[in-house]
DNA sequence: TACACTACGTGCAACGACGCACTCAGTGCA
DNA sequence: TGCACTGAGTGCGTCGTTGCACGTAGTGTA
């Protein structure tokens, strides 16, 4: 890899790491671009060379966290494919990772509500809208774990995301507008169809 | 300080640090620009943005080492201005620093033998050609140490440089051409005049 | 001698970080 | 309502790093 590309990628990662730390410290949007740049040890202007907005930084950070949780799942699943205890531990890990994310923003991002970007909507589909069968198939192939166990993990993962996201959204004071809420409800519907009976609705 | 200037200075220091390590590992000119750049984690081309040649890098590294030895001398002298034991220790430190340098190249550099740069010849004068009185006066003023003790230190420093440089030069196989040797002899003559009876000539 | 090979050093253009001045939107206060 | 202040985001010129092609010098080898 090109040294230029390396340096650029390193800067990008530095921004995401800084955002990750700041989100965990103070929650979303509780910090300025200046603080982010300071923490990443780069110039303020450079943030906007990598991301279109501060929201974009936060969203990307959240998706990265999610992807890492999935990767960790695969790694753990690959190492101990039949240990039930490690599965339980894994659920806790995933739940913790999800709780660390800014779910409302993340979900809105996946649905492209924050802007009309078609690429993001496609990304949303590829992550959340993929059918449970497809997701289970892929994870089974990649991890080599028994398909039934993977199906359970997938259900739990999707269920966890839905429940925690809903929880966050209610706590944040219902800032969704009407169209956003309709999309959110349709997400819940689709998730319910995917994960089946395992889904539980909070008040 | 500007962030740009900071980055640039950091690169320069990285080059010098890498050169320092490589010189200690293998001796002068036993490494390529590519190795230097790799070790400094920068592009090869960037070396020539900071220095005019690989020799320039080596010379600058040596002068930096010398300057640090002098700075350390001043710091130590300032802290314990009347401790004879620390003085003896200081001589060992300076000698060690000098031994770590690539003295032949350093001396040649100061005398402007590697190129005809007038600025370098002036720099040579300002460091090596300054009379012992001037150097003693300045060091006395800066350190606050008794002038007589400073004079002894200056003699020892100059003496040490001359002896060790001579030693290195003989060991390196007498690669000096005739004109270089004449200048080297004149350096010895001037140093002998400066440091007086303390000077000892190796075979 | 001819030739391959290695390493130094340069010229040049592209690219990304940077600084700065600026607009704009939100917010608190008189 | 008017006004000051803060922070997001933009436009643009500058500057340093980088990659690449190139020329050159020294060295080993047929």
Written overview of the protein:
Chains A, B: This is Transcriptional regulator, TetR family. Chains A, B: Residues 9-69 form the HTH tetR-type domain. Chains A, B: GO terms for molecular function: DNA-binding transcription factor activity; transcription cis-regulatory region binding. The structure is a homodimer of 203-residue chains. Chain A has 203 residues and is mainly α. Chain A has 2 domains: 1-51, Arc Repressor Mutant, subunit A (Orthogonal Bundle); 54-198, no CATH class. In chain A, 77% of the residues lie in helices and 0% in strands. The longest helix of chain A has 26 residues, at 54-79. The first copy, chain A, is extended. Chain A starts with a helix and ends in an 8-residue tail after the last helix. Chain A binds a DNA duplex (30 and 30 nucleotides) through helix 1 and helix 3.
Give a brief description.
Chain A is an all-alpha fold.
Sum up the structure in keywords.
mainly alpha; 203 residues; HTH-type_TetR-like_transc_reg (chains A, B); 10 helices; homodimer; DNA-binding; Homeodomain-like_sf (chains A, B); extended; disordered C terminus; Arc Repressor Mutant, subunit A; 2 domains
Say what oligomer this is.
Answer: homodimer
Report the mean per-residue pLDDT of chain A as an integer: 61
Number of helices of chain A: 10
Judging from the principal axes of the Cα atoms, what is the shape of chain A? extended
- The portion of residues forming beta strands of chain A comes to under 5%
Largest sheet: number of strands, sense, barrel closure of chain A: none
Note poorly predicted spans of chain A.
76-91, 110-117, 123-131, 166-177, 190-203
**Class derived from helix and strand content of chain A:** mainly alpha
Percentage of residues assigned to helices of chain A: over 70%
User: How many strands of chain A?
Assistant: 0
Whole-number count of domains of chain A: 2
Which radius of gyration of chain A do the C-alpha atoms yield?
Answer: 18 Å
Q: Tell me the series of helices and strands of chain A, N- to C-terminal.
A: HHHHHHHHHH
- The separation of the N and C termini of chain A measures 51 Å
């Amino acid at each position: 890899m090109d040294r230029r590309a390396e340096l650029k990628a390193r800067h990008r990662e530095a921004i995401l790491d800084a955002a990750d730390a700041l989100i965990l410290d103070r929650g979303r949007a509780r910090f300025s671009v200046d603080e982010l740049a300071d923490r990443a040890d780069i110039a303020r202007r450079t943030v906007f060379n990598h991301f279109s907005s501060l929201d974009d930084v936060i969203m990307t950070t959240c998706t990265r966290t999610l992807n890492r949780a999935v990767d960790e799942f695969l790694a753990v699943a690959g190492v101990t494919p039949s240990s039930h205890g490690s599965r339980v531990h894994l659920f806790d890990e995933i739940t913790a990772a999800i709780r660390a994310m800014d779910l409302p923003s993340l979900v809105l991002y996946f649905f492209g509500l924050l802007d009309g970007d078609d690429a993001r909507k496609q990304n949303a589909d590829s992550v959340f809208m993929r059918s449970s069968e497809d997701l289970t198939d892929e994870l089974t192939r990649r991890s080599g774990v028994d398909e039934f166990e993977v199906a359970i993990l997938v259900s739990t993962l999707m269920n966890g995301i839905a429940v925690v996201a809903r929880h966050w959204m209610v706590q944040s004071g219902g800032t969704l507008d009407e169209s956003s809420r309709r999309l959110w409800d349709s997400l819940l519907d689709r998730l319910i169809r995917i994960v089946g009976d395992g889904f539980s609705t909070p008040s």
